[in-house]
Design brief:
Elements (H helix, E strand, L loop, with lengths): L4 H24 L16 H7 L4 H10 L12 H9 L6 H29 L4 H5 L25 H13 L13 H18 L9 H17 L4 H17 L5 H29 L1 H9 L8 H5 L5 H7 L3 H10 L5 H15 L4 H4 L1 H5 L4 H5 L6 H24 L5
């Protein structure tokens, strides 16, 4: 496969166009929204526009003061800690927030490219992933994965176009440009999946414990960036349960050890979640401030009484595209379908103000970008990329102007 330089250059150009458009709009139409925060320590216009909206200031203050009020208690500590690290490079907290988000965004593009190239050129063949491979070799009890059609041979240009589609997703483009935590969550989740695949690169069914531990703790870092990273561990738990049940008895002890290694980071993250719940009761805060609750598929209905129905339709307009890409992940790796499907159920079940952020949550679901590999029509891919860029632009403009496009 050829050098990834061309694909990365197109990704950078896409981001540059996006930044230029939202910064121009922020300067051309000054906003007096209450969600716009003041400029900090003579930050330049670019930094201020990208770091002033909605939750951005909360992340920045948490980086130096920790949990400081009721509003801040709703956020996990991971992204503020990244901003704190960036304060080693700059004394301006708004600049540190923008730097953290954009650095994670650019690194996430590299991780996405690595995953796309892996699934396009896997030495074990795409049928292994398409069949939902669980690490089991044929043992006389029907454990050998069967081909589900697979991807066939995927060309370099197709991989590059799938990457461009992934880079246009609002979770990576819009919310990886403003000072938000989505790009960090996506980065660590994709690195976790890279390590997970690396653990399977040896002689199966035995997997490398070190890489499984790396996958687990990278996944835990993703969850510490944003609670929406939870579906990764939920999917891993289901996958490992099926694997342990199906594997021959003489190999079950090893399978349990591997499952423990893979889920260890999730247990640690669950402990951190319990601490936040005990010390800060962030669930009550979210319910009080934003009417955020979990009601199965109740998100869209919860918005009907609070905002115009036309805006609700606009928020969920990209859902069919998300479902299309979700379906296509089945041909890439069924385990990716499980991760994305669990995430989609969670997103559609968040009510109140959280439901307004549907596009942010949906398009931070990184497996959807890998589903683009199974769409062979380049015209369709270009059209989908253009649509995602438009959604990103809508989200980005809403953020810098302090509108409801969260």
């Amino acid at each position: 496969m050829s050098s990834p330089g061309g694909a990365l250059l197109r990704a950078v150009l896409l981001k540059a166009c996006f930044v230029a458009l939202i910064v121009w709009a922020a300067g051309a139409w000054p906003s007096e929204s209450p969600y716009i925060k003041p400029r900090f320590e003579r930050a330049n216009d670019l930094v201020w526009y990208l770091s002033r909206g909605f939750d951005s200031e909360s992340y920045q203050i948490m980086a130096t003061e920790g949990y400081y009020d009721e509003f801040s208690r709703s956020h996990p500590p991971g992204f503020p800690l990244l901003i704190r690290a960036m304060l080693l490079l700059t004394s301006n907290r708004q600049a540190a927030g923008v730097l953290a988000a954009n650095l994670c965004s650019l690194l996430a593009v590299l991780a996405m490219l690595a995953l796309l190239r892996h699934y396009a050129t896997s030495r074990d063949g795409p049928a292994r992933h398409a069949a939902g491979h669980d690490g089991l070799r044929h043992d006389g009890v029907g454990c050998e994965p069967q081909s589900a059609g697979g991807l066939g041979r995927v060309g370099v240009s197709h991989v590059d176009l799938a990457l461009l589609l992934g880079c246009a997703m609002p979770g990576l483009l819009a919310f990886g440009t403003v000072a938000y935590s989505e790009s960090a969550m996506m980065l660590f989740a994709m690195l976790a999946w890279c390590a997970y695949l690396r653990a399977e690169s040896g002689e199966l069914p035995r997997r490398h414990l070190g890489w499984l531990l790396a996958a687990s703790w990278l996944g835990a870092l993703s969850l510490m960036m944003r609670d929406m990273g939870a579906p990764l561990f939920a999917a891993w738990g289901l996958i490992e349960l099926v694997r342990v049940v199906r594997i021959p008895g003489e190999q079950r002890s090893r399978a349990l050890l591997e499952a423990g290694a893979l889920l260890s980071g999730g247990l640690a993250a669950a402990g951190a979640f319990a601490w936040r719940l005990a010390e800060h009761d962030f669930i009550e805060v979210q319910q009080k401030l934003w009417s955020v609750r979990f009601e199965l598929f109740g998100g869209p209905a919860s918005l009907m009484g609070s905002i115009d129905p036309e805006f609700v339709v606009l928020i969920y307009a990209s859902l069919p595209l998300g479902l299309l890409l979700l379906a296509r992940t089945w041909r890439v790796d069924k385990r990716l379908t499980l991760v994305a499907a669990l995430g989609l159920v969670l997103m559609l079940s968040v009510t109140g103000v959280g439901a307004q952020s549907f596009n942010r949550y949906l398009w931070a679901t990184w497996p959807l970008a890998l589903g683009a590999l199974a769409i062979r029509d380049r015209g369709v891919l270009w059209a989908l990329t253009a649509w995602l860029f438009a959604v990103s632009l809508w989200c980005g403009l809403g953020h810098v102007q302090g509108s409801m496009a969260l």
